[in-house]
Amino acid sequence: MFSSIRTKLTLWYVGFLTLVVVMFGAAAYQITVRELDRDLNRRLEEISQVFIAGTKAETDDEQETGHDRVVETGINEFQFRDYHFVVRGQSSAFTATTKEIEGKNITLTGKRFSDIRIGDKSFRVFETGFSLGTDQYKLLVLHSLDEEIELKNRLLTLFLLAGVLGVALAGIGGYFLVRRSIAPVIEMSREAGEISAENLGQRLSVRGRRDEVGQLAQVINDLLARLDHSFEQQRRFMADASHELRTPLAIVRGEAEVALSKDDRSPAEYRESLSILHDESKRLTKIVEDLFTLARVDAGQVAVNFAPVYLDEIVSDAIRSMRVLADQRQVAITIDGGAEMPFDGDESLLRRMILNLLDNAVKYSHRGGKVVVNLLSTGDKYQISVSDNGIGIPDEDQPKIFDRFYRVDRARSRSDETATSGAGLGLSITRWIAEMHGGKIVLVSSTADGSTFSVIFPR
Ligand code: ADP
Q1: Intra-chain end-to-end CA distance of the chain, in Å
Q2: How remote is the CA of residue 432 from the centroid of ligand 1, in Å?
Q3: Which side of the chain, N or C, has fewer Cβ within a 10 Å radius?
Q4: Does pTM surpass 0.90?
Q5: Closest ligand 1 atom, residue 408 Cα
């Protein structure tokens, strides 16, 4: 229960509010009490002045009839509710006291204001001196503190009640407020809980929210979209891969069945069948290898070993390996430009990249065609271009040839008798290798008269 944000926020809120209320309440109480105190002191002082003035006036009227008597009459006549007077002569043992506190032992403290107890009652005492003629007197004005104490208690109760009630109300309000603002998050987690691999297309409802919760939903939705996309890619990859494997496998099976169907076959016929089986299994091997490479690329598992290499040497080597195939197809490969091209890269991946380009150039050339490899090195880049005068790529297909499994015309490459015709994975691997080395591959041009691919690496 205490782990829920709702409870935690509410508790924090109530805690903080309590602190503020207590601080504020204590300050207000202190100020009020001090004000009450000052007020009482002021009244005591005023009343003492009235008393002294009154007594002095009496003395002026009566002349020298004895000051003590004037004081005594004064005390009897001075009737102020809840205020009591004590007057003491200085030299003589004269003491006059208001009736209510007569006979009580009141000691002088010498301070202007003091609190004393008489019996079980508390009093505030104001002490001052005055003189009548040459006689010096001490005047004490007392006021019961009962009312003050009562008032203070009432104030305290009131403050406590108001505080507790205020905090409780604010707490309840806060709880509902937090609940309200957290509701969309709860709703979101419920919605997210319903999304799995099967319904990745589903999204969290954002409902035009522009606040943090809306942003969070947007972020999650974007994440879902990316996941959905890559799931879709995986699914397509699987489907395409099995589709591509199916044809050569069907050919292998069909050919084997034909070969086995008759008992007496000439060696030439067996040779023919075996050669088809051989070609198709080579194709299968290539497709499986490409698939394997791409799967590892996706999983980020391809180890790339960067080392100092010479691009021109890799190109020459690749051309040498392609010769047999090119000769079969009566395609001539020439190299143009021969400067040294020192580079930092993975030799076997770079070789594979060049071989893929050469393979395509030869594959899609006419008999007697020409493939030219041009090496160019400028101040800041290397450029390897492979041009052929083959069948070219139709304009509408050009943007897609680097996509996985994309082949311009399946029938076109299928009818091709070379065992190297792939599953449309060659160029996507080639592009990956180029990018892996900080470079890029572009189809410079492609018309019915031929195509030119260029790989560009930064130096
Ligand atoms: P594949 O392994 O089938 O050759 P690629 O990814 O290497 O697949 O190439 C994709 C498609 O691009 C090919 O099917 C082909 O139609 C086209 N293509 C690639 N290179 C050339 C080229 N030099 N001339 C004509 N078409 C080409």
Answers
A1: 62
A2: 15
A3: N
A4: no
A5: 16
